[in-house]
Prior knowledge:
Blueprint: E1 6-12, H1 18-29, E2 34-40, H2 49-57, E3 83-86, H3 89-93, E4 104-107, H4 120-142, H5 151-162
Parallel strand pairs: 1-2, 1-3, 3-4
Amino acid sequence: MSKETYNVLFLCTGNSARSIIAECITNRLGAPRFRAFSAGSHPTGKVNPYALRLLEKMNYATEGLRSKDWAEFATEGAPALDFVFTVCDNAAGEVCPIWPGQPMTAHWGVPDPAAVEGSEAEKGAAFADTHRILYNRISIFTNLRLEVLDKLSLQKRLDDIGRGKTGSA
């Protein structure tokens, strides 16, 4: 598997926090080799303010971020996807659209930081933890030597990353 730019889609039900954070991390860590997008099965229509605050504090590009329906990526003219990752358990269990080009898929479930109740500090910590988990997984992913992995080996590596297993590329 070798090409100039790989398109990656991160899916979550609401597309307001986890998938948005993953999109930003990938666009930073993976540029220019990877270009990331995010979407949801039932988008909330807005980016979670805690996610936005965290991303801005960490100097991620946030202009243009929006909560959008995953159907946008299953239409003619949408970017051809190479990878699709679900980052919430709900989206992983839903019937996804048929993605043009048959991208590789994996489930990288992360607890929902938006579901955390408590003080501002506790909520902020939940979003920071989500960022840490996704950053670690995406860092491993963007450093894989895709050109030396066959499809079955790559699928195993993607699944292992989602289970928190690491190893050399």
